[in-house]
Amino acid sequence: MSTDCSSNSNCTESTRLLPGEDDKRCPSYHGGEGDDREVLQPAHVTTTTRFWILAVFCVLSWVQGVQWNTWGPISESMGAAFPGWGASTVAMMANWGTIMFVVFVFPMSWATQRYSLRAGVVASAALIFVGTSLRCFTRTVPTFTILCHVCAVLVGVASTFVLSAPPLVASHWFPPQERTTALALMFGASQLSGVGSYLEPLLVRLPTPHASILDIQEDVMLVLYIGAGVSGALLVAVIIYFPSKPPTPPSFTSATARLEFFTSFSALAKNGRWLVLVVTYGVVVGPSIAWGSVLNYSLLPLGLHQDEAMWVAQTAMIVSSISPVVSGRFTDLFHGHVRTSLVLLLLATTFCYFWFLLLTYGVIPLTKWQVYASVVGGTAFNYATIPLFYEMGVDLAYPAPEILVSGAITAADNLISIFFFLVFFIPNVGYQWMTYTLVFSTSVSILPLLLIRFRYTRSTIDAQQV
Fold this sequence. Notes:
By secondary structure, this protein is mainly α. The chain is 68% helix and 1% strand. The chain has 19 helices and 2 strands.
């Protein structure tokens, strides 16, 4: 007797049968009357390999983020040493990442589900390596500028996987009590990439009478050589060892079959609570992420040039790479308080951004420590919301595939970022609008969070299987 469970959402590939029995893929199958066959439930076992997977993916996230944010931290030097490089060029280099994400996120999500997590990791690392290598060929304008645009496009395509895959990695490799923490670490590593990019002013000189155009160009090329070398080493590492899944699933839902990719679109389009959450996430996080790559332009009117802005950004990136881990671990330890945590974090974010707005207008006497506190606080509280949004988004969408759900969530913040960067092309628009946008986006997003009725579908299922 054969049992067909292709339509059963509880079907897993990890179900183990007694030797000699027919292939049954449903862990819920117990046999009929008089049927003495036994189907063993899948064992939920974690392996230490998960820490290697987490470390490698964190490095991949870090490298992708550094390459996406290459130019903002050295914008003054680029404008002086390379003809045609102004604020719009720097903004466009970052904007390529957001545009490519929106264009390619769903094809990349489909390909990852079709060909495996490993295929997505290798493909992304290869795209980053090719892009960073192209920039090293010449420093002659306009060829150099064109190759930089090509690199930005390739890194942007890679970001469709790198920014969408953390929930999939966490689901495949980590048990429920570690899942949000692992997710937060991957997002924290991505945010920590800002530390790498904002270290560039240590290698690239400011345009001064003591630094010629040739000197600055040589400094910039050194930064690009280092980026290509690190990307190449990462590609070798993921080719050598990065399996898609562990031999045994770490939780019940990690082994449970997901909806078909295209069927999931219809299910998600009808899921009102999930759609509200996605839009809210985009409005909250999109402007803040985009602002991080052009922070120099907000600090310059306050008298902070790129060498000083570097330290403001460094501090903000370090603290905001830790804050998601703290919020994620809190969520794992104290289940059921996501909405309250999100609202409190958004209130704190709004306060810090409004504080910075008052400083830029001179309402509050300008002091350096207040600049640090308002920028660092606003960025850190904002980024602390990310793993909470993702974990809740995956729960609300379950059993849709994680790569599709997280891809759509990330596409929301990238879409908002596109509009943020395009404002730079408006003549004489200035830079004050950025701070207004930050205050507005975080404050108005509190109301929809209060109206959403959250449910913990995936978490509840895993808890029942313990």
